[in-house]
Amino acid sequence: MAQEAFVLVVDDDPLILDLVSMRLEAAGYNVTTASDAWQEVIQAQALRLGLVITDVQMPGFGTGIDAYKRLRQLSPNLPIIFMTGMKLDDVKSHLPNPPDPRVRLLGKPINFDELRQMIKDLTGLDRPL
Fold it and tell me: Which of 46, 48, 61, 65 is nearest to 105 (CA)?
């Protein structure tokens, strides 16, 4: 992920959105946020993104899975981390098979050590969160 690229954090819960974005910013990442899947897709079209960290279930335009499908049309190699309070197996059943190597699933509450490892795996960057 290029240094100037943004990490887009998407969640309809403002507390989670703030917590994740503040931890990433404190680690030196350029962060932008959205609160629904529609804004997620719009920002992906407008900004140079290096990573998307998105909730799965959100009200409005659609789910994080819907946004993922659109993002794959725009940028097939964009790394995406799904955050979810759902059972991870339930989310996996909605993703393409075979699994997308550029996607990771992170349960809520968020374990920031796991998030750090996922970011490292997907982008090569390793910064303490």
Answer: 65
- Beta strands 80-84 and 103-107 are parallel
Strand partners, 48: none
In one-letter notation, the amino acid at residue 127 is R
Q: What is the CATH number of the domain that holds 108?
A: 3.40.50.2300
Residue with the two structure tokens 């659609």 = 62
Q: Which of 35, 93, 46 is nearest to 65 (CA)?
A: 93
- Over the chain (129 residues), the average pLDDT of each successive run of 10 is 77 96 97 94 92 91 89 93 92 84 95 98 95
Distance CA 8, CA 30 (A): 9
Could you tell me if residue 11 is inside a domain?
A: yes
